[in-house]
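ok new one. same drill as before - structure tokens go in, u give me an amino acid for every spot. 223 of them this time. try not to just spam alanines like last time pls lmao
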């Protein structure tokens, strides 16, 4: 299923024309008002042009992390690549992600994929962004590709997601893998994924429904 729009934890009252202010207002226009085109044109695009200027103007590679573990990972990555890097607090990855999310709403699948990938340039280990790419792959009926993204999302959620969202981000990834496996007719493997999601969150109703669906598929005579 589609991912929830981001609920970023920014400065309480950012300037309306700042990256944070534009991204927050765009998220509101997208979420509350359901105007994806307006959100993109009036809010996400102006935020993104500021982000691109910031990225180009920086000597260091800029990253945005959601947890201390993710910050350390990016700094170690930069050290290994002998590339100066800085982990900053910024709404930039959210602006790209939300533009992708809104584009998918408009049926613009290629644009959606492009901008979620751009969000990952800022935050390569963000499980929410990786799961969104898994979802986009499912929209394109690329089941194997989808599994690859959701597996990365599962691993990122386990290693780097902030504690308070680790469970929903992990279960979303496991369900994504499970959906794709059902489409591929690999029902035993799919069942294992939904059971793994229920181990983490016994209240996961979608996984419960999918397990019932798998039982139903098994009891139907082959076409």
């Amino acid at each position: 299923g589609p991912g929830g729009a981001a609920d970023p934890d920014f400065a309480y009252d950012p300037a309306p024309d700042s990256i944070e202010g534009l991204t927050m207002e765009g998220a509101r226009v997208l979420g509350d008002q359901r105007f994806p085109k307006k959100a993109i044109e009036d809010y996400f695009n102006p935020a993104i042009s500021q982000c691109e200027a910031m990225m180009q103007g920086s000597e260091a590679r800029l990253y945005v992390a959601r947890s201390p573990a993710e910050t350390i990972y990016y700094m170690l990555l930069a050290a290994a690549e002998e590339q100066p890097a800085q982990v900053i607090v910024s709404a930039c990855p959210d602006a790209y992600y939300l533009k992708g999310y809104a584009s998918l709403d408009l049926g613009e699948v290629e644009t959606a994929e492009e901008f979620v990938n751009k969000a990952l340039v800022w935050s390569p280990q963000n499980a929410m962004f990786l799961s969104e790419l898994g979802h986009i792959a499912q929209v394109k009926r690329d089941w194997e590709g989808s599994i690859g993204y959701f597996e990365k999302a599962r691993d990122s959620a386990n290693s780097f997601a902030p504690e308070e969202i680790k469970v929903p981000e992990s279960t979303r990834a496991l369900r994504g893998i499970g959906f794709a496996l059902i489409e591929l007719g690999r029902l035993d493997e799919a069942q294992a994924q939904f059971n793994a999601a229920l181990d983490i969150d016994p209240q996961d109703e979608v996984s419960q429904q999918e397990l019932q669906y798998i039982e139903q598929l098994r009891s139907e005579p082959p076409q």
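Residues 55 and 62 are 7 Å apart (CA to CA). and btw Confidence is low (pLDDT under 50) at residues 1-8.
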